[in-house]
Amino acid sequence: MAKDKKMVEDITSMDVDFAQWYTDICKKAELIEYTSVKGCMVIRPYGYAIWEHMQRILDTMFKELGHENVCMPMFIPESLLNKEKDHVEGFAPEVAWVTHGGKEKLEERLCVRPTSETLFCEHYANIIHSYRDLPKLYNQWVSVVRWEKTTRPFLRSREFLWQEGHTIHATAEEAIIETEQMLNVYAKFCEESLAMPVVKGKKTESDKFAGAVSTYAIEALMHDGKALQAGTSHYFGDGFAKAFDITYTDKENKRVYPHQTSWGVTTRLIGAIIMTHGDDSGLVLPPAVAPIQTVIIPIAQHKEGVLEKSAELRDRLAKSFRVKLDDSDNSAGWKFSEYEMKGVPVRLEIGPRDIENNQCVLVTRHDRQKYIVSLDNLEEEIAEKLQMVRDGIYQKALENREKHTYECKTIDEINAKLAENGDGFVKAMWCGDEECEDKVKELTGVGSRCIPAEQDHFSDTCVCCGKKAKHMVYWGKAY
Predict the structure, then answer these.
(1) pLDDT of residue 6 exceeding 70
(2) Count of alpha carbons within 13 angstroms of residue 125, beta-carbon side
(3) How far is CA 164 from CA 8, 23, 112, 141, in A?
(4) Averaged pLDDT for residues 182-190
(5) 8 pLDDT exceeds 60?
(6) Which range among 69-73, 92-96, 392-396 shows the weakest confidence by mean pLDDT?
(7) 57 Cβ contact list (under 8 Å, min separation 6)
(8) Which of 246-275 are b and which e, b meaning 16 or more Cβ less than 10 Å from the residue's Cβ?
(9) pLDDT digits (tens, 9 = 90+) for 51-70
(10) What's the pLDDT score for residue 91?
């Protein structure tokens, strides 16, 4: 048992040092490993399996809406990147450049894609000629590179995995509908599959994506009270089309510019799961994306019939769930700690007495409750427990957000609430002036996260200047 206890003690308590707790889980749950390239990580099989389940669910949702997967090149010629002024200025500090091919210096530098708007635009200009060619609903699953100065596994790395959707439409109305629709897809995915409550809203002008007319985002609150941008959706208008000379002939035989969108989520969602649901024993995974949904732990496995029965249950349950049988010679206590660390939603324990009584013990990870259940209707029992885990961790995350969301009418009130209750979401009214937006951050440390779609009106005046308010804004410290 000393080994079992040591495994848990190796995780720094989240209340002692949240950042170290996070890093400990990334390493000890075998999600990542560091590499000799600073800021780049190996996503290990267990971590990658979580991403694969996210990918599978989202890809299905995208395709149900008519999107098709494509794959653009990794490299972007400098001249192509420079075609959209605001866009290139927004990404310039993070761009990695290729200057040589083998021993030969390239005639033109190549950017390693930080995002692919320019590549899609070049492609659209080649293939779109008539209104009959529209819309194009494309998505790609790739890695991108952004030369970040400060990195942290999943949350901010120099190379990361994501999906980036890029669509092009005949009218502004169609493109705006697409932008909002994809934001709703992300919100549904996060809340249903990741059990993570989110706030949907529009970014302020100063915080929108480089080159966009408007940017929408979903914002989640982590256990430590900091916000995390979990997904974004951008409406570009016809700005990129004009920069790249993308036109089509409409039904009146006129040459007009189409309207574009882009939208994406990344592997930072794995970091969001860790920081939303994890505890001092390790990961707590939402069942929908857990690589192992149920682990079978044989008790007194040296006794006759125990391993055989465990294997029989594994084969039976594998038809309905992602299941693993741990028949290694580690102690049962060590196995309990191991799979708690890995966040497996349901643990199944079975020993000689259970076999005699045609029963087993089920333990739910999020609350460690034990249930003695009959083997006759085991599939139904496990499905019910998996739903209990999803609902339980969603409710816990929602309660944490509600506990750490503060309505404030003045700067002093913001500072007092944060000092008294810790970091969280601040709901405060805003006049729409960027100077006030900056001043709020300077005086309180919280920046604007989004203008929520659902507006609460609890004051007529701006939290900063006292002038007439235009919007209620969510503010917070962010990852």
Answers:
(1) no
(2) 15
(3) 38, 27, 15, 7
(4) 98
(5) no
(6) 92-96
(7) 189, 193, 288, 289
(8) bbbeeeeeeeebbbbbbbbbbbbbbbbbbb
(9) 999 999 999 999 999 999 99
(10) 81
Predicted pLDDT of residue 178: 98
Number of other residues whose CB lies within 10 A of the CB of residue 97: 12
Task: Enter the tokens of residue 277.
Answer: 């649901």
Q: Around Cβ 425, how many Cβ atoms within 10 Å?
A: 25
CA nearest neighbour of 26 among 478, 398, 343: 343
| Helices 411-421 and 434-444, packing angle to 10 deg | 40
* Whether pLDDT at 7 is above 80: no
* DSSP label at residue 82: T
Residue 5 pLDDT class (50, 70, 90 cuts)? very low
Q: What span, in angstroms and rounded, lies between the C-alpha atoms of 388 and 404?
A: 24
Q: pLDDT over 70 for what percent of the chain?
A: 98
Residue 313 phi, psi (nearest 5): -65, -40
Q: Are strands 32-34 and 41-43 parallel, antiparallel or unpaired?
A: antiparallel
Question: Taking 50 as the threshold, does the pLDDT of residue 1 lie above it?
Answer: no
pTM of the model: 0.95
In angstroms, the CA 464 to CA 439 distance is 7
Residue pair 224/21 in contact by the 8 Å Cβ criterion: no
Which letter, b or e, does each residue of 344-376 get, where b requires 16 or more Cβ atoms within 10 Å of its Cβ? bbbbbbbbbebbeeebbbbbbbbeeeeeebebe
Structure tokens at 96: 């990695």
Indicate whether 4 pLDDT > 80. no
Q: Tell me the C-alpha distance between 425 and 167, whole Å.
A: 32
The helix/strand/coil state of 325 is: strand
- Orientation of helix 45-64 relative to helix 172-188, angle to 10°: 140
* Tokens 């099989």, residue located: 45
In whole angstroms, give the CA distance from residue 152 to residue 24: 12
- In this structure, what DSSP letter does residue 185 have? H
